[in-house]
Design brief:
four-stranded antiparallel sheet; seven-stranded mixed sheet; globular; alpha+beta; 600 residues; 11 strands
């Protein structure tokens, strides 16, 4: 028998256990950590323990904390106030003193909302913690057009009362500042909470969810395409009603109850009624969905609540690191100019707007070359230009008004108000009027490079948690990079290795003595005393609205079925699905061009 399998010879060292905890916090799986130890020690028999021993050691280290999950979670949040005075959290318990709802947001999120809180979107996602509590993520868009997070919430259920509580705490956190618009997936509970708390806020329902429901409720080919036009195109109210009635007649949906209910809520999804309101540049909750998918890289359904919160922080830090990269690129470089027909205007926008938003503006400048001013009315204090697309008589004509005294310009397509950037009609009028400076009203502060100072918490601030082992792992991580450098030099030659071993032996004896002499005061968590949330119990596992788990019998039946050839739902050919379909990609490119023209 191999001796490394004997119990007397199996022991994971304290150093390796600390390394394993650090790697676990970074998101590595235990099996991956084990493979690293095997490679690091030069073989399976050199690790000093088995894979099962590693699993058991990590589980034992978490057990004491996880058994008091609710208390640990709240103490974790309370400790955040030591390093971030603007940190905010609130919670709710039931009659059994069980945690039911939890909301939190850090100082950076509150700062972002102060600048970019004109549009808010939120949605819930599932399978992020062992208590099965849905995670609500409230998001918006920053000056780079990237997603920024305004807050998180864990909730017990998805009733109107629950979402009312979440929004109440959100507004309390944000000093009662209301967003101008809200985008949701159409959940009735969310709708009720928004109507009660934010009746003045313009509310939009996700177009993707509406079209997906249309497939289920109206089984007529072509109906979804017509409905998509009504959602995204801008018609007068009378023309919208005429087109709606014609669509119902053409597809035998006059008596369809779902269609009737949809029409009654048209002010929440039709561009006819929503044009002029900014929703982060989107008509769907894709920003929420992509954020949920991003966070799922760090979360899973086996995590205790405190660990789920910690992993949310890791995901948020990764998101903000991407924002820092964009900010640095804007500071250290300038975009290459195309030298369009309005090179002076292009250069001005390049100097003040972030790169992403400048590219959006430049696209409109380029497209303006297809437009001509066919009429110019010069009034006492303003100019009115009628814009027409070249050789496109079917496109509607647009009117651009320029107020000479105020130096303000507007267009009746409402692109500026809806998308946040000036439209091609405005640039066509500027070229006709020989304007060399950008009208002040079409510059939006939210897109400026300097609209915010990147929010950084103290880089040397030590994070404090309820469990002392968490702090020790942070100390371990701090010295780990120096240890790796030491090992790198030791392996360069036998002489260096020998000298390194001598130094290490001497140092280890000295450090072991220091550890034995540590007093009790050193064992406290940085000397900090935090509020203890005694008596709060772990939430009951809850059933969510997500897909229910599959029964064993259905799993067996599905596994016994023979695999069918994959058929693309777009081109109806086999060998690929819609994600890889070349026909779909071509249609998407054509659709993007067409959607852009819908503002005509």
């Amino acid at each position: 028998m191999q001796k490394h399998f004997l119990r007397s010879h199996r022991k994971i060292s304290a150093a390796e256990l600390e390394q394993a905890k650090l790697l676990k916090e970074a998101g590595m799986k235990t099996s991956e950590i084990w493979n690293l130890f095997v490679h690091q020690n030069g073989g399976w028999d050199k690790v000093g323990c088995t894979k099962k021993d590693l699993y058991n050691s990590l589980a034992a280290g978490r057990r004491g904390v996880d058994d008091l999950d609710a208390n640990t979670t709240l103490t974790f949040l309370q400790s955040k106030l030591d390093i971030d005075p603007e940190y905010f959290y609130a919670y709710m318990v039931d009659e059994e003193s069980r945690l039911t709802h939890l909301f939190w947001a850090d100082g950076a999120s509150r700062f972002d909302y102060e600048l970019f809180g004109d549009s808010l979107a939120f949605d819930s996602t599932y399978k992020t913690n062992k208590c099965q509590m849905p995670l609500v993520v409230l998001v918006g868009s920053n000056n780079h057009g990237m997603t920024c997070v305004f807050g998180f919430a864990l909730i017990q259920n998805e009733t109107a009362e629950t979402y009312t509580w979440v929004l109440q705490k959100f507004l309390e956190c944000m000093k009662d500042k209301l967003p101008e618009t809200i985008l949701t997936d159409g959940c009735r509970s969310m709708n009720k909470a928004i109507e009660d708390l934010m009746p003045s806020v313009v509310h939009r329902t996700c177009s993707w969810h509406i079209l997906n429901n249309a497939i289920k409720h109206v089984h007529e080919e072509g109906f979804v395409g017509e409905l998509r036009n009504l959602i995204k195109r801008y018609y007068s109210v009378d023309e919208f009603d005429l087109r709606w009635n014609k669509m119902l007649l053409d597809y035998n949906a006059e008596n369809n109850e779902w269609a009737k209910a949809l029409y009654s809520s048209r002010h929440q999804w039709a561009d006819t009624h929503l044009r002029g309101s900014y929703f982060g540049g989107s008509t769907a909750t894709n920003r929420c969905e992509s954020m949920n998918a991003f966070l799922k890289r760090f979360l899973d359904e086996k995590l205790p609540l405190w660990r789920a919160l910690q992993h949310c922080e890791h995901g948020l830090a990764a998101l903000r690191y991407g924002e820092l990269g964009k900010h640095a690129a804007d500071k250290l470089s300038t975009p290459v100019l195309k030298r369009t027909s309005m090179s002076e205007i292009e250069e001005q926008f390049a100097s003040i707007y972030t790169r992403n938003m400048f590219l959006e503006v430049r696209n409109q400048i380029t497209r303006s070359e297809k437009y001509n001013v066919i009429r110019h009315h010069k009034l006492k204090a303003s100019d009115i230009c009628t814009i027409e697309k070249y050789l496109s008589k079917d496109h509607p004509k647009r009117k651009v008004t320029f107020k000479r005294i105020e130096r303000e310009m507007s267009c009746d397509c409402y692109w500026l108000e809806t998308k946040g950037i000036p439209c091609r009609h405005v640039f066509a009028a500027m070229k006709h009027l020989h304007l060399s400076d950008i009208p002040r009203n079409i510059i939006k502060n939210r897109w400026l490079k300097e609209c915010k100072d990147i929010y950084l918490s103290s880089p040397d601030a030590q994070r404090r948690f309820v469990n002392p082992d968490m702090i020790s792992s942070k100390r371990y991580g701090g010295i780990n990079s120096q240890a790796n450098l030491f090992l790198y030099y030791c392996k360069k030659s036998p002489k260096v290795q020998q000298r390194g071993m001598e130094l290490m032996s001497t140092l280890l004896v000295e450090m072991q003595k220091m550890v034995e002499d540590v007093g009790e005061e050193e064992k406290t968590i940085n000397g900090a005393v935090h509020e203890v949330h005694d008596g709060i119990k772990e939430p009951h596992p809850v059933a969510t609205k997500g897909r229910p788990p599959q029964s064993k019998s259905s799993q067996q039946n599905s596994s016994q079925k023979s695999a069918k050839a994959r058929i693309c739902r777009v081109c109806k050919k086999s060998g690929h699905d819609y994600r890889n379909c070349k026909v779909r990609k071509r249609k998407c490119e054509e659709s993007m061009e067409k959607d852009d023209d819908d503002f005509e």
